[in-house]
Amino acid sequence: MAETESEAAEAVDALIIGSFFKPVRPVKDAAEEILLLWAIQQPIVHKHNSFVIHSSLRLQLDACGRQLTIFQSPSSMSTPGVTGAVMWDSGVVLAKFLEHAVETGMLLLRGKKVVELGAGCGLVGCIAALLGAQVILTDLPDRLKLLKKNVEANVEQGYAPGSATVAELEWGDDPDCKLTEPMPDFVLGSDVIYSEGAVTDLLATLQQLSSIHTTIFLAGELRNDVVLEYFLELALQDFEVGHVDQTFWHPDYCSHRVAIFVLVKKHPSLKSSKG
Questions:
Q1: What gap in Å lies between CA 124 and CA 89, rounded to an integer?
Q2: Which of 81, 79, 178, 63 has its CA nearest to residue 123?
Q3: Are 210 and 183 in contact (CB under 8 A)?
């Protein structure tokens, strides 16, 4: 077995997936990917919540030449079924990955249409807007108040390079036409693979929001290998999936407890016949 993530990436034929201009390790088998991730990154022996404090009412982060303030609602975490009330490491990692990728020419977001799924506190979408994208941040109705507050606090509409608006979206439902006309150039999500019951609805929404020209970035905490394996197994039926090596992440925001995947919808002629 390869001793490092880079060695593992070299052991297979890396490829370009979607609009990310660097080669990634292709995910070909869900169970094999889980074994590789847990063996190499060993998430359970590394520090949890390296970049966030759940008890704090706000998270401050330097990005895009300014200091962002992301308001949190830690008291809401005690309410059953409530998600997105606080930031998780995966959201910070993905946000800073986008900033680093744009600054180093690995990614182009300026002028692109971006939809963020399960936006929660909205850090990822806000940074995408500050990088020049036209962003729609989506979440469930009870999460929109906090989401709007953070967008208003961090994205000066009309002055930021891009723009950010907020919209309601429940996974599995038919999305509003403003999300699909035209189709997004990018779909983003952090910590959205958290429940086996939500996987099919999440994948249905990813299908509805993407064409073969849409690039999807999903970052997640490596907590439950069963849920992630189930997601990857189903995703591989309709999407090309790649694992983004940490050498492409922001150097100050790497975590062994987080993984970033890039996906793009398969051309119909390349889809597997297996159900």
A1: 11
A2: 63
A3: yes
